Amino acid sequence: MMRYDAILVVSFGGPEAREDVLPFLENVLRGRNVPRQRMLEVAEHYYHFDGRSPINQQCRELIDALRGQVSLPIYWGNRNWNPMLADTVRQMAADGVRRALAIATSAFSSYSGCRQYIENIAAARAVAGPDAPVVDKLPPFWNHPGFLEANGDRVRHALAQVPEDRRAAARLVYTAHSIPLSMSANCRYEEQLVEAARRVSALAVHDEWDLVWQSRSGPPTQPWLEPDILDHLRSLAENGVRDVVCSPLGFLSDHMEVMYDLDYEAAAVAGELGINFVRAGTAGTHPAVIAMLAELIAQRQREDLPLCAPDCCPAPLRP
After folding, report:
1. What is the topology classification, in CATH, of domain 145-279?
2. Is the distance from CB of 201 to CB of 209 less than 8 angstroms?
3. Percent above pLDDT 90 for the chain
4. Mean pLDDT throughout 111-140?
5. pTM greater than 0.85
C-alpha cells in the first residue's frame, strides 16, 4: 500500500505587494525572449490592483479547507513567487518527509499546466539534494464529478443573476487561458475544455454556450487558440445578445488574469457594447472541490489512481 507522509500544494504564485511585481514577472519570464516593455505593460495589470494577485490567498484558503479533510501535513510551494518550491522541498527534507503527493492548482492537461509542474518538482528535488522526498503529482482532474459539480454550481448561481425573462437567451461563455497552437497540438487541453464545458452546461441546464480564450501573450506572429473573449463579446453584441454569463472554467481559482482580463477588461467592453456581463466564480474552495481532492489523495494512498504517463504534455518546440 502506498504510504505518503505529506501533501504538497504546487501553484503558479503571485505578488502580494507593489514591490513584488517586477521581481515576480522577472521570475516568470526568465529564459524567455520577452521585451522588457511588454513586461512593464503586464506589470500595470498588477498595479491596477495595488500589486496584489489573489492566487496566494486562494492557495491559503484551499490548504486551510483541505486540512479539515486529510490528516497528513500540507506543504505549499510556488513556481514563481514565495513560498518558492525549492525552499519548500528543502523544508520537507529537513522535516523528514520521505514521500509526498503533489496537487497542482491546474485541472487541465497542457505543458504549462501539467508537465512543467512535474519538471519544477524535479528541479526543486535536485536543489534539495539526496534527502529530498520522492514526490508524485496528481494527474489533471478536469473530468472529476467534484470539479464539474463545483463549476456547475457557480454557473447556476451566476445565471440566477440574469433577469428571469431573459435567462434562457443568455449566452454562457466559458474561458480558459489561451496557449500556443504548438502547445495545444501536443496535449488534450482544448478537447478537455470542450468536454468539461459541455458537462457543466448540462449540470447548469443551459444549452446556449461557447468556449473562448483569454490572456494570450507572445508575439503576434505566433498562432494561439482563438477566439479571444473580447472579440467574442463584440460578435455576440452584433448578433443581439443582451446577457452574457462568463465562467473562467480553465482556472481552478482566481488569478490576476481572471481579475484583470475578465472583471476589468471584459466587463468594460461588455458595458460599452450594452451587454449585461455576469462573471461566475471559479471552483476555488467549493466543498465539492475539497471533497474531490480528499478522495483523490485517498485513491493514491491505495494505489487506485494512475499517475500521468511519462510522456504526457511535452513541451512545445520553440522557433
Report:
1. Rossmann fold (3.40.50)
2. yes
3. 92
4. 97
5. yes
